[in-house]
Design brief:
Strand order of the largest sheet: 1-8-7-4-5
Radius of gyration: 14 Å
Shape: globular
Strand content: 35-45%
Bound molecules: fe (ii) ion
CATH topology: Immunoglobulin-like
Number of helices: 2
Structural class: alpha+beta
Amino acid sequence: MSNRRTFIKTTALVASGLAVSATALAKGKGKLPSFPGVIYTRNDQGMWEGKAGSHAPEVSVKGRKVTVYTNHSMSQEHYIVRHTVVTQKGKVLGSKTFYPDKDKKAVSEYEIPENVSGKLYATSFCNKHDFWLTEFDI
Ligand SMILES: [Fe+2]
């Protein structure tokens, strides 16, 4: 249960961070903001250096269909808890919560609305290795 509580706290913090990030991006900085120790990316692995390959979400885009995959094992003790796809303005376009007893892969699919374009964020939360983010375009 503490992993779920940690996840909820982290999600709230990250959601507010994304809203701030969106504001910074909208002001033309054009660079993914850094939240050391809160958000990990392929380019900022922090204390989880070397874990991006199994934690940073992989995104494939085909038309308006987005598939998010985290190449991570799904055991009862160590698994991916959740994916989300979020706009630069912090709007959550979709999410999926995983349960290791029934989800053998951390993969989720989303249909992006026609009125959404530009940069989006895919997130992946590991119960042991925190919150990872991959930026992509649609
Ligand atoms: Fe992990």
